[in-house]
Amino acid sequence: MKKLTFFLVYTVIVFSIFSYTTSIEKTNLKQLLHAQYTNKMAGASSQLNELQKAVQQSLLFSDPTALNDSLQDVWRLSSDIRQTIGDLPLDREFTTQWMNYLGRLGNQAKLTMTTEESKANWNKSVTNVASNLSSFSSEWDVATAHLLQEDKHYNKWLDQLSNMDVDSNFTNLSASVKSYTESDFPLTSSESDRQKKKDLQALKDQPISEKQALARFKEMFTQYDKATIRIEESAKTAPYPFYHITFHDGIRLGYADITKKGGHLLSYLVERPVDESTLSQEELVTRANKRMNQLGFDDLKIVDSRENTMAWHLNYVRINPDNKAKIYADGVQVKIAKDNGEIIGINSMEYIQKETLKNQPMKKINWKTFFDKNVEIVEEDLAYSENDKMEERLCYELTVVYYNKNVPHTFRVLVDTETAEIIKNEKL
Fold it and tell me: Rounded to an integer, what distance in angstroms lies between the CA atom of residue 381 and that of residue 369?
């Protein structure tokens, strides 16, 4: 009995010590996290004040050198604040809007430093930016003071880290920043076109019914005619309406998304075991091309491929029938099983809406004087690529090799056919 009493007393003491130690550790962690977020919040406030001054200072100068110094500060500070805000568990909607605003402000400053045309755009918008940043700075001070004045807000930070919705003064800031973005940095026509394409707004096809979508799926994938299939419409909050189809057939389990407008295949994925035996890459590509043609993708060309243990991943792009140029923005990604060449994945989101291409002159360029004497051109083609203004430009696409002390380095260079501007330069 004495031993049992001793054991119970000992157990109570141990648990008491453990609970006390755990409580102390939790309190220390709480204080450490609170201090960390407080310091970052204070840092963001300081950076915001510096950004506000830098924007106002940019109004003072016409001299390019002096103006560029101020713009350099705007670009640097907007980037610094984005990084700081990204580390804080604030209202998600506010963080998204504020990061977007800072990104557009920084990009505008950077473009102004490098493009003469953008200086006029900066002068038009900078007055509003300076005024809005001043108003936002006051709202920010009120919101952060309220958040930091009481220790209980630690729990709200934990809720934010857990992706839980919590009420805060930053909800009002989110609405403010959104209005600032719309007034200070309205979408250019190119950006607007890009957003419309992303949201499938240009589709003019007539809507199809759920029954028609199911028939369309079975027409494309006849092997699943007897599979267990379930179909449902996308949520009302989706950026565009589509039908989501899930199917199960023996060892195969997968899904397909089909647009409500026109019944276009958005995506397709099937999971199944893949045998160890593999076909050759040439045979796999041949089978993939044949199957893509059967599915209606008959104007594509493979531009890139990579493999893993089970499949090859192929990147297709649309070919412009007029000049045979590759349109990288109109791409389709395909996953093909190594064992039998079956297509087990398709992503055709970019392909559904064709890019709007404008007629563009093709200036002859002397590549011998354009490139260094140690550069060798190994392949030349035509391709469309997006420039800094999000405009699709026709380019000479050149694969070149540069020899440095007899060591070859391969690059892919895209040169605008009209302006000879280098749109892209990447090492392969």
Answer: 19
Residues with Cβ within 8 Å of residue 397, at least 6 apart in sequence? 326, 380, 381, 382, 383, 412, 413, 414
> Do both 175 and 53 map to the same domain?
yes
Do residues 284 and 149 both lie within one domain?
Answer: no
Q: Are residues 324 and 423 in the same domain?
A: no
Nearest 10 degrees: Cα torsion 312, 318, 324, 325: -90
CB atoms within 10 A of CB 406: 5
Domain residue limits at 220: 210-347
pLDDT in tens, 372-385: 888 889 999 999 99
Enumerate helices (H) and strands (E) in the chain, giving the number of each.
10, 12
How many other CB atoms sit within 10 Å of the CB of residue 240?
15
CA–CA gap between residue 377 and residue 366 (Å, rounded): 12
Task: Using a cut of 0.85, tell me whether the model's pTM lies above it.
Answer: no
Q: What angle do CA 233, 239, 245 make, to 5 degrees?
A: 30
Residues 181 and 32 in one domain: yes
In this prediction, residue 182 carries a pLDDT of 52
Tell me: the pLDDT tens digits for 329-363? 888 999 998 888 889 889 888 888 777 788 899 99
